[in-house]
Design goal:
This protein is α/β, with parallel strands linked by helices. The chain has two domains: about 1-250 and about 455-475, Aldehyde Dehydrogenase, Chain A, domain 1; about 255-440, Aldehyde Dehydrogenase, Chain A, domain 2, CATH 3.40.309. The protein is built from 18 helices and 20 strands. It has helices at about 40-55, 60, 65-80, 80-95, 95-105, 110-115, 155-165, 180-185, 190-195, 210-215, 230-240, 265-275, 295-310, 330-345, 380-385, 400-405, 420-430, 465-470, and strands at about 1-5, 5-10, 10-15, 20-25, 30-35, 135-140, 145-150, 170-175, 200-205, 220-225, 245-250, 255-260, 290-295, 350, 370-375, 390-395, 415-420, 440, 460, 470-480. The structure holds nicotinamide-adenine-dinucleotide. Nicotinamide-adenine-dinucleotide binds next to helix 10 and helix 11.
Length: about 500
């Protein structure tokens, strides 16, 4: 059985606890690897290495262009190993090889794009209102970054943090999810091959309380970039606040996918199915509330259910599979629990509604794609994130009611609007409280376009030029170019 060690200061090292934990394959339910169980001592070593590189090691001496070149090399190496890395992720999280392969093929772009930005981080000369002074700004790295990631898209979500952090000149300690640690430990060795100095990116694996929290609490870590659940996000934020640390949070969602009667129905049906059943619904941007205009409701639901019923479930390693297992056993139980809650709340079950017992699902953690109609937006199934293949359908009369229902939720991550009326598309995109509005599409993301949440879906932005600012701090430099000293007791 493969044993995965921490990666600290350019070397694979044993956990100081001497303990290991199991990584399960969600398709078979079997253990396939053992992962180092980290603790505060391991975090300390990793943070010290990252801090040395930030302040006086070879990394701190590189020019921004040199950092960009290394990041480009890293991108090429990820592209070379994309297939291998994708297969490890499928073994760990059970998501479809078709999806993980596409993701891993796309991940190098984060390193190319942010590598390209590394030497375009410019300060400004400030046109002061005071004579005899020259004032300019510098954008400096915020410090050692603690990056904490979830299990659904391990290396892609790591790239959203690591790439802008490195471009800004920061160094990183990455703590992947305990459910999907292996790919990060394969990936991290590419840093050495690309020519990065040891200690720039470190990986410490383990559980949230034993590794995540010490990382958040470490005084030398000046920025936490966290993706995960709102419950953990709140704890991370409160803890980091005690040291006035920068925090970026990418949390959950209950995203509305809104279809107007004037939409191209076939496209919208595809978008609704992809919004909730792709990745077995295990995405933060899942379009888990489908808002349908009354006049098309019945026809739309019929077509949606007919399409969803064709989904091929089974082995995620097969390119033909369309819906794979749920990644973790607790998540599997949680989804089944929400299906019961929806039934008890009086939502009308149209398909699915429990464990998948099809022979091709074997002993994996599979949930049938599930559709509930007649959902009222006040129900828990409409308000709480399920993070699984469970769709809630809600009717609306007109644009105003669609906006009201869409926004009547604590979250604000994604949203979809399906309409052929350009004016309505613009009005809706203005009124929806969410970090992303997709019009006549769903689930598109790019390294170039800012991503993040409104309300309790998080704070800060990843991707695009906004992301690099999250890893920089501004310094204002004043130079006396001829001002008189004047009265030392009075501010100038
Ligand atoms: P989680 O909050 O359970 O875990 C996320 C990470 O936090 C893991 O690495 C975990 O070990 C760590 N952690 C747990 N307790 C901690 C603690 N006390 N201190 C520090 N770290 C701790 O979330 P999850 O179940 O892995 O992921 C699913 C959640 O992630 C969903 O809510 C989903 O919506 C969200 N998500 C958000 C985005 C986004 O970009 N907004 C993307 C993917 C997933």
């Amino acid at each position: 059985m493969t044993k995965y060690l921490h990666y600290i200061d350019g070397k694979y090292v044993e956990p100081s606890s001497g303990k290991w934990f199991d990584s399960f394959n969600p398709f078979t339910g079997e253990v396939w690897a053992q992962i180092a169980q980290g603790n505060a001592e391991d975090v300390e070593r990793a943070v010290q290495a990252a801090h040395r590189e930030l302040t006086k090691g070879p990394w701190s001496q590189l020019t921004p262009s040199q950092r960009g070149v290394l990041m480009h090399k890293l991108g090429d190496l990820i592209a070379r190993d994309a297939k291998k890395l994708a297969e490890i992720e499928v073994r760990d999280n059970g998501k479809l090889i078709a999806e993980m392969q596409a993701q891993l093929n796309y991940v190098p772009n984060w390193y190319y794009y942010f590598g390209g930005l590394a030497d375009k981080i410019q300060g400004a000369v400030i046109p002061l209102d005071k004579k005899g002074y020259f004032n300019f700004t510098r954008n400096e790295p915020v410090g050692v970054v603690g990056a904490i990631t979830p299990w659904n898209s391990p290396l892609m979500l790591a790239a959203w943090k690591v790439a802008p952090a490195l471009a800004a000149g920061c160094t990183v300690v990455l703590k992947p999810s305990e459910f999907t640690s292996a790919s990060a430990l394969e990936f991290v060795k590419l840093f050495e091959e690309a020519g990065f100095p040891p200690g720039v990116v470190n990986v410490v694996t383990g559980f949230g309380k034993e590794v995540g929290m010490p990382l958040v609490e470490h005084p030398l870590v000046r920025k936490i970039s966290f993706t995960g659940s709102e419950v953990t996000g709140r704890l991370v934020n409160e803890t980091a606040a005690r040291q006035f640390k920068r925090v970026g949070l990418e949390l959950g969602g209950k995203s509305p996918n809104i279809v107007f009667a004037d939409a191209k129905i076939e496209d919208a049906v595809n978008g609704a199915v992809s919004g909730i059943f792709a990745a077995t619904g295990q995405t933060c941007i899942a379009g888990s509330r489908l808002l349908l205009q009354e006049s098309i409701h019945d026809e739309f639901v019929e077509r949606l259910v007919a399409l969803a019923k064709t989904a091929r479930m089974g082995n995620p390693m097969s390119m033909d599979t369309q819906v794979g297992p749920v990644t973790t056993q607790p998540q599997y139980q949680k989804i089944l629990g929400y299906i019961d809650i929806a039934k008890n709340e009086g939502a009308k079950l149209l398909m699915g509604g429990g464990k998948a017992t099809r022979p091709e699902c074997g002993s994996g953690w599979f949930v049938e794609p599930t559709v509930f109609a007649g959902v009222n937006n006040k129900m828990r199934i409409a308000q709480e994130e399920v993070f699984g293949p469970v769709l809630s359908i809600i009717k609306f009369k007109d644009e105003d009611e669609a906006v009201q229902i869409a926004n009547d939720v604590r979250f604000g991550l994604g949203s979809g609007v399906w309409t052929n009326d350009i004016g309505r598309a613009i009005r809706m995109s203005e009124k929806i409280q969410a970090g992303t509005v997709w019009v006549n599409t769903y689930r598109a993301v790019s390294y170039m376009s800012p991503f993040g949440g409104y309300k309790e879906s998080g704070m800060g932005r990843e991707n695009g030029q906004d992301a690099i600012r999250e890893y920089l701090q501004t310094k204002s430099v004043w130079i006396n170019s001829g001002a008189a000293t004047g009265n030392p007791f009075v501010m100038r």
